[in-house]
Queue: 3 jobs
Job 1
Amino acid sequence: MLSAAAAAPLTRRAVLRTAFTATVLAGTAAALAPVLRARRPRQTLTPAPLSEETYRGRHIAVDLAGVRIDGRPLHVMRRADGSYLSGINHFESYATPLEVARAAVDELGTTQLAFAAPHHG
Protein backbone atom coordinates (compact mmCIF):
# COMPACT_ATOMS: atom_id res chain seq x y z
CA MET A 1 0.00 0.00 0.00
CA LEU A 2 1.23 3.49 -0.80
CA SER A 3 0.91 6.19 1.80
CA ALA A 4 -0.93 9.38 1.01
CA ALA A 5 2.28 11.47 1.28
CA ALA A 6 4.17 9.33 -1.22
CA ALA A 7 1.34 9.47 -3.74
CA ALA A 8 0.86 13.24 -3.46
CA PRO A 9 2.13 15.28 -6.41
CA LEU A 10 5.13 17.60 -5.93
CA THR A 11 4.13 21.07 -4.90
CA ARG A 12 5.83 24.26 -5.93
CA ARG A 13 6.95 24.75 -2.31
CA ALA A 14 8.66 21.31 -2.21
CA VAL A 15 10.47 21.95 -5.50
CA LEU A 16 11.69 25.38 -4.34
CA ARG A 17 12.80 23.99 -0.96
CA THR A 18 14.81 21.25 -2.70
CA ALA A 19 16.38 23.74 -5.12
CA PHE A 20 17.26 26.12 -2.28
CA THR A 21 18.85 23.32 -0.22
CA ALA A 22 20.89 22.15 -3.21
CA THR A 23 22.08 25.73 -3.85
CA VAL A 24 23.12 26.22 -0.21
CA LEU A 25 25.03 22.93 -0.19
CA ALA A 26 26.82 23.76 -3.47
CA GLY A 27 27.74 27.24 -2.21
CA THR A 28 29.06 25.87 1.07
CA ALA A 29 31.15 23.27 -0.75
CA ALA A 30 32.57 25.92 -3.10
CA ALA A 31 33.45 28.18 -0.15
CA LEU A 32 35.12 25.41 1.85
CA ALA A 33 37.07 23.85 -1.04
CA PRO A 34 40.04 26.30 -0.89
CA VAL A 35 40.26 25.93 2.89
CA LEU A 36 40.31 22.15 2.69
CA ARG A 37 42.84 22.21 -0.15
CA ALA A 38 45.14 24.51 1.84
CA ARG A 39 45.25 22.05 4.75
CA ARG A 40 46.95 19.42 2.61
CA PRO A 41 50.76 19.49 2.80
CA ARG A 42 52.35 21.05 -0.25
CA GLN A 43 55.12 19.35 -2.12
CA THR A 44 58.28 21.29 -2.72
CA LEU A 45 60.30 20.62 -5.82
CA THR A 46 63.73 20.99 -4.27
CA PRO A 47 64.70 22.08 -0.77
CA ALA A 48 66.74 25.23 -0.49
CA PRO A 49 70.44 24.58 0.06
CA LEU A 50 71.85 25.27 3.50
CA SER A 51 74.82 27.56 3.90
CA GLU A 52 77.07 27.62 6.93
CA GLU A 53 80.40 29.29 7.39
CA THR A 54 82.60 31.01 9.90
CA TYR A 55 83.28 34.61 8.92
CA ARG A 56 85.60 36.74 11.06
CA GLY A 57 85.16 34.34 13.94
CA ARG A 58 81.33 34.43 13.81
CA HIS A 59 79.17 31.45 12.85
CA ILE A 60 76.75 32.29 10.02
CA ALA A 61 73.91 29.89 9.11
CA VAL A 62 71.43 30.42 6.26
CA ASP A 63 68.54 27.98 5.87
CA LEU A 64 64.79 27.88 5.31
CA ALA A 65 64.18 29.31 8.77
CA GLY A 66 66.24 32.40 7.96
CA VAL A 67 69.67 33.83 8.70
CA ARG A 68 71.40 33.39 12.05
CA ILE A 69 74.66 34.82 13.35
CA ASP A 70 76.04 32.85 16.30
CA GLY A 71 72.60 31.25 16.67
CA ARG A 72 70.79 34.57 16.90
CA PRO A 73 68.29 35.59 14.18
CA LEU A 74 69.17 38.36 11.74
CA HIS A 75 66.15 40.13 10.27
CA VAL A 76 66.58 39.85 6.48
CA MET A 77 64.17 41.30 3.94
CA ARG A 78 63.90 40.54 0.24
CA ARG A 79 63.51 43.49 -2.10
CA ALA A 80 61.36 43.58 -5.22
CA ASP A 81 64.46 43.38 -7.44
CA GLY A 82 65.51 40.08 -5.80
CA SER A 83 68.29 41.52 -3.65
CA TYR A 84 68.39 41.37 0.16
CA LEU A 85 68.87 43.84 2.98
CA SER A 86 68.99 43.47 6.75
CA GLY A 87 67.86 45.31 9.82
CA ILE A 88 71.50 46.09 10.61
CA ASN A 89 72.10 48.00 7.38
CA HIS A 90 68.97 48.69 5.37
CA PHE A 91 70.61 51.26 3.12
CA GLU A 92 72.63 48.75 1.11
CA SER A 93 71.40 45.72 -0.88
CA TYR A 94 73.19 42.40 -1.37
CA ALA A 95 72.72 39.58 -3.88
CA THR A 96 72.36 36.71 -1.36
CA PRO A 97 71.39 36.26 2.28
CA LEU A 98 74.94 35.05 2.98
CA GLU A 99 76.36 38.35 1.71
CA VAL A 100 73.88 40.22 3.95
CA ALA A 101 75.06 38.20 6.94
CA ARG A 102 78.73 38.92 6.17
CA ALA A 103 77.97 42.65 5.91
CA ALA A 104 76.08 42.49 9.22
CA VAL A 105 79.10 40.83 10.88
CA ASP A 106 81.30 43.60 9.50
CA GLU A 107 78.90 46.22 10.90
CA LEU A 108 78.37 44.50 14.28
CA GLY A 109 82.02 43.95 15.10
CA THR A 110 82.05 42.19 18.48
CA THR A 111 78.47 43.16 19.37
CA GLN A 112 75.91 40.33 19.57
CA LEU A 113 72.46 40.38 18.01
CA ALA A 114 69.48 40.30 20.37
CA PHE A 115 67.76 36.90 20.73
CA ALA A 116 64.26 38.25 20.14
CA ALA A 117 63.60 40.36 17.08
CA PRO A 118 62.03 43.73 17.91
CA HIS A 119 58.28 44.06 17.24
CA HIS A 120 56.90 47.05 15.42
CA GLY A 121 53.94 48.71 16.99
Job 2
Amino acid sequence: MNGTLQNMHLWRGLQVADGGVLAADLNLGLFDDGLRIGLWGGTDFTGDYKEFDYYVSYSVAGFTFAVWDIFNYSPELPFSKDIFNYNKYSTSHFLDFSVAYNFDTKLNVPLRLYWATIFAGRT
Protein backbone atom coordinates (compact mmCIF):
# COMPACT_ATOMS: atom_id res chain seq x y z
CA MET A 1 0.00 0.00 0.00
CA ASN A 2 1.26 3.47 -0.79
CA GLY A 3 -0.04 6.98 -1.14
CA THR A 4 1.09 10.06 -3.02
CA LEU A 5 0.45 13.77 -2.79
CA GLN A 6 0.96 15.58 -6.10
CA ASN A 7 0.73 19.21 -7.17
CA MET A 8 -1.04 18.05 -10.38
CA HIS A 9 -1.77 14.73 -12.08
CA LEU A 10 -0.33 13.76 -15.47
CA TRP A 11 -1.25 10.54 -17.28
CA ARG A 12 0.70 9.70 -20.43
CA GLY A 13 1.51 13.34 -20.99
CA LEU A 14 -2.05 14.60 -20.47
CA GLN A 15 -2.88 16.88 -17.57
CA VAL A 16 -5.76 15.13 -15.81
CA ALA A 17 -5.94 17.43 -12.77
CA ASP A 18 -4.39 20.87 -12.48
CA GLY A 19 -4.47 21.12 -8.70
CA GLY A 20 -3.27 19.08 -5.75
CA VAL A 21 -4.11 15.37 -5.95
CA LEU A 22 -4.15 12.71 -3.26
CA ALA A 23 -3.80 9.15 -4.61
CA ALA A 24 -3.55 5.70 -3.06
CA ASP A 25 -2.52 2.30 -4.40
CA LEU A 26 -3.34 -0.94 -2.63
CA ASN A 27 -2.03 -4.11 -4.23
CA LEU A 28 -1.30 -7.72 -3.44
CA GLY A 29 1.69 -9.56 -4.88
CA LEU A 30 1.43 -13.29 -5.50
CA PHE A 31 3.90 -15.88 -6.82
CA ASP A 32 7.01 -13.98 -5.69
CA ASP A 33 5.34 -10.72 -6.76
CA GLY A 34 5.14 -11.88 -10.39
CA LEU A 35 1.36 -11.47 -10.29
CA ARG A 36 -0.08 -8.25 -8.85
CA ILE A 37 -3.73 -7.44 -8.23
CA GLY A 38 -4.54 -3.93 -7.13
CA LEU A 39 -6.78 -0.93 -6.66
CA TRP A 40 -5.76 2.65 -7.41
CA GLY A 41 -7.75 5.76 -6.57
CA GLY A 42 -7.22 9.48 -6.66
CA THR A 43 -9.03 12.77 -6.14
CA ASP A 44 -8.12 16.42 -6.23
CA PHE A 45 -8.83 18.79 -3.37
CA THR A 46 -11.75 20.49 -5.14
CA GLY A 47 -13.59 17.27 -6.04
CA ASP A 48 -13.45 18.05 -9.78
CA TYR A 49 -11.24 15.03 -10.48
CA LYS A 50 -12.07 11.57 -9.16
CA GLU A 51 -10.75 8.24 -10.37
CA PHE A 52 -11.01 4.62 -9.28
CA ASP A 53 -9.11 1.86 -11.09
CA TYR A 54 -8.48 -1.79 -10.59
CA TYR A 55 -5.74 -3.74 -12.30
CA VAL A 56 -3.86 -6.99 -12.71
CA SER A 57 -0.27 -7.35 -13.90
CA TYR A 58 2.12 -10.20 -14.49
CA SER A 59 5.92 -9.85 -14.64
CA VAL A 60 8.37 -12.39 -16.00
CA ALA A 61 11.91 -12.18 -17.51
CA GLY A 62 11.93 -8.37 -17.63
CA PHE A 63 8.46 -8.12 -19.20
CA THR A 64 5.35 -6.80 -17.45
CA PHE A 65 1.86 -7.30 -18.92
CA ALA A 66 -1.01 -5.36 -17.37
CA VAL A 67 -4.72 -4.75 -17.79
CA TRP A 68 -6.21 -1.70 -16.07
CA ASP A 69 -9.91 -0.93 -15.69
CA ILE A 70 -9.86 2.87 -15.49
CA PHE A 71 -12.90 4.74 -14.21
CA ASN A 72 -12.38 8.52 -14.25
CA TYR A 73 -15.62 10.17 -13.22
CA SER A 74 -14.72 13.85 -13.36
CA PRO A 75 -17.69 16.20 -13.92
CA GLU A 76 -16.70 17.23 -17.48
CA LEU A 77 -16.66 13.61 -18.71
CA PRO A 78 -19.70 11.46 -19.55
CA PHE A 79 -20.78 9.64 -16.43
CA SER A 80 -22.56 6.40 -15.84
CA LYS A 81 -22.76 4.72 -12.45
CA ASP A 82 -22.82 1.32 -14.15
CA ILE A 83 -19.39 -0.13 -13.43
CA PHE A 84 -19.71 -2.47 -16.44
CA ASN A 85 -20.67 0.27 -18.90
CA TYR A 86 -17.95 0.55 -21.56
CA ASN A 87 -20.04 2.45 -24.12
CA LYS A 88 -17.73 5.24 -25.30
CA TYR A 89 -20.67 7.66 -25.68
CA SER A 90 -22.03 7.34 -22.13
CA THR A 91 -19.08 6.63 -19.85
CA SER A 92 -15.58 7.72 -18.96
CA HIS A 93 -14.75 4.10 -18.19
CA PHE A 94 -12.24 2.14 -20.28
CA LEU A 95 -9.94 -0.88 -20.36
CA ASP A 96 -6.24 -0.39 -20.99
CA PHE A 97 -3.65 -3.06 -21.90
CA SER A 98 0.10 -2.48 -21.59
CA VAL A 99 3.38 -4.29 -22.14
CA ALA A 100 6.66 -3.08 -20.67
CA TYR A 101 10.21 -4.35 -20.82
CA ASN A 102 12.90 -3.39 -18.32
CA PHE A 103 16.39 -3.59 -19.80
CA ASP A 104 19.19 -4.79 -17.54
CA THR A 105 22.04 -2.44 -18.41
CA LYS A 106 25.64 -2.74 -17.23
CA LEU A 107 25.80 1.05 -16.92
CA ASN A 108 23.20 0.85 -14.15
CA VAL A 109 20.96 3.22 -16.09
CA PRO A 110 17.26 2.41 -15.85
CA LEU A 111 15.76 1.89 -19.28
CA ARG A 112 12.17 0.79 -19.78
CA LEU A 113 10.26 0.33 -23.03
CA TYR A 114 6.50 0.75 -22.59
CA TRP A 115 3.51 0.36 -24.96
CA ALA A 116 -0.18 0.66 -24.08
CA THR A 117 -3.54 0.85 -25.81
CA ILE A 118 -7.17 1.37 -24.84
CA PHE A 119 -9.15 -1.60 -26.13
CA ALA A 120 -12.68 -1.05 -24.75
CA GLY A 121 -14.78 1.85 -23.54
CA ARG A 122 -14.01 5.56 -23.94
CA THR A 123 -11.29 6.06 -26.53
Job 3
Amino acid sequence: MALSSLSVVVNANRLRGFTAERAADDTAVSLASEPVVEVGDDRHDPGSEPTPHATDPVCGMSVDPAFATASATHEGHTYYFCSGHCARVFDTRPTDFAATTERGSAPPQ
Protein backbone atom coordinates (compact mmCIF):
# COMPACT_ATOMS: atom_id res chain seq x y z
CA MET A 1 0.00 0.00 0.00
CA ALA A 2 2.79 2.41 0.91
CA LEU A 3 4.65 1.63 -2.32
CA SER A 4 1.60 2.48 -4.47
CA SER A 5 1.12 5.79 -2.63
CA LEU A 6 4.78 6.61 -3.11
CA SER A 7 4.51 5.81 -6.83
CA VAL A 8 1.54 8.20 -7.22
CA VAL A 9 3.34 11.04 -5.44
CA VAL A 10 6.55 10.58 -7.46
CA ASN A 11 4.68 10.56 -10.79
CA ALA A 12 2.64 13.62 -9.80
CA ASN A 13 5.83 15.53 -9.04
CA ARG A 14 7.35 14.44 -12.37
CA LEU A 15 4.33 15.89 -14.21
CA ARG A 16 4.81 19.31 -12.60
CA GLY A 17 7.79 19.98 -14.85
CA PHE A 18 6.14 18.72 -18.05
CA THR A 19 5.40 21.23 -20.82
CA ALA A 20 3.74 20.11 -24.04
CA GLU A 21 5.17 21.14 -27.39
CA ARG A 22 3.07 23.52 -29.47
CA ALA A 23 1.60 22.06 -32.63
CA ALA A 24 2.60 23.61 -35.94
CA ASP A 25 0.06 26.13 -37.27
CA ASP A 26 -0.67 24.04 -40.37
CA THR A 27 -1.68 21.02 -38.28
CA ALA A 28 -3.90 22.92 -35.84
CA VAL A 29 -7.54 21.93 -35.86
CA SER A 30 -10.08 24.72 -35.91
CA LEU A 31 -12.32 24.37 -32.89
CA ALA A 32 -14.60 27.20 -33.98
CA SER A 33 -16.07 25.36 -36.97
CA GLU A 34 -19.82 25.32 -37.36
CA PRO A 35 -21.55 21.98 -36.79
CA VAL A 36 -23.42 20.46 -39.71
CA VAL A 37 -27.11 20.03 -38.93
CA GLU A 38 -29.30 18.10 -41.31
CA VAL A 39 -32.97 18.93 -41.16
CA GLY A 40 -35.75 17.37 -43.11
CA ASP A 41 -37.79 14.31 -43.71
CA ASP A 42 -36.01 11.92 -46.05
CA ARG A 43 -38.98 9.56 -46.21
CA HIS A 44 -40.42 11.64 -49.06
CA ASP A 45 -39.11 12.73 -52.44
CA PRO A 46 -37.42 16.15 -52.36
CA GLY A 47 -39.54 17.41 -55.27
CA SER A 48 -42.87 16.31 -53.80
CA GLU A 49 -45.38 18.40 -51.89
CA PRO A 50 -44.45 19.16 -48.27
CA THR A 51 -45.88 16.73 -45.76
CA PRO A 52 -48.80 18.16 -43.77
CA HIS A 53 -48.05 18.30 -40.07
CA ALA A 54 -50.33 18.46 -37.08
CA THR A 55 -49.44 19.74 -33.62
CA ASP A 56 -49.63 17.40 -30.66
CA PRO A 57 -52.07 19.23 -28.34
CA VAL A 58 -50.36 17.94 -25.19
CA CYS A 59 -46.66 18.71 -25.77
CA GLY A 60 -46.87 21.01 -28.81
CA MET A 61 -44.59 18.84 -30.96
CA SER A 62 -45.06 18.81 -34.74
CA VAL A 63 -46.39 15.40 -35.87
CA ASP A 64 -46.76 13.90 -39.35
CA PRO A 65 -50.30 12.43 -39.32
CA ALA A 66 -49.20 9.50 -41.50
CA PHE A 67 -46.63 8.43 -38.90
CA ALA A 68 -48.34 9.55 -35.66
CA THR A 69 -48.11 7.11 -32.77
CA ALA A 70 -51.74 7.63 -31.81
CA SER A 71 -54.77 9.72 -32.70
CA ALA A 72 -58.06 10.62 -31.06
CA THR A 73 -61.26 12.30 -32.16
CA HIS A 74 -62.90 14.83 -29.88
CA GLU A 75 -65.99 16.83 -30.89
CA GLY A 76 -65.47 16.03 -34.57
CA HIS A 77 -61.81 17.05 -34.71
CA THR A 78 -58.97 14.51 -35.01
CA TYR A 79 -55.86 15.09 -32.89
CA TYR A 80 -52.52 13.36 -33.57
CA PHE A 81 -49.96 12.48 -30.89
CA CYS A 82 -46.19 11.98 -30.87
CA SER A 83 -46.36 9.28 -28.19
CA GLY A 84 -48.72 7.02 -26.31
CA HIS A 85 -48.08 9.08 -23.17
CA CYS A 86 -49.42 12.26 -24.81
CA ALA A 87 -52.48 10.33 -26.04
CA ARG A 88 -53.19 9.02 -22.51
CA VAL A 89 -52.81 12.52 -21.01
CA PHE A 90 -55.20 13.90 -23.67
CA ASP A 91 -57.74 11.15 -22.82
CA THR A 92 -57.80 12.30 -19.18
CA ARG A 93 -58.82 15.92 -20.03
CA PRO A 94 -59.64 16.23 -23.75
CA THR A 95 -61.68 19.42 -23.34
CA ASP A 96 -58.75 21.31 -21.78
CA PHE A 97 -56.30 20.37 -24.52
CA ALA A 98 -58.78 20.82 -27.38
CA ALA A 99 -59.68 24.33 -26.18
CA THR A 100 -56.05 25.48 -25.94
CA THR A 101 -55.19 23.99 -29.33
CA GLU A 102 -58.04 25.83 -31.05
CA ARG A 103 -57.13 29.16 -29.41
CA GLY A 104 -53.45 28.67 -30.28
CA SER A 105 -52.19 29.14 -26.72
CA ALA A 106 -49.84 26.89 -24.80
CA PRO A 107 -51.24 23.55 -23.61
CA PRO A 108 -51.93 23.18 -19.87
CA GLN A 109 -49.29 21.40 -17.82
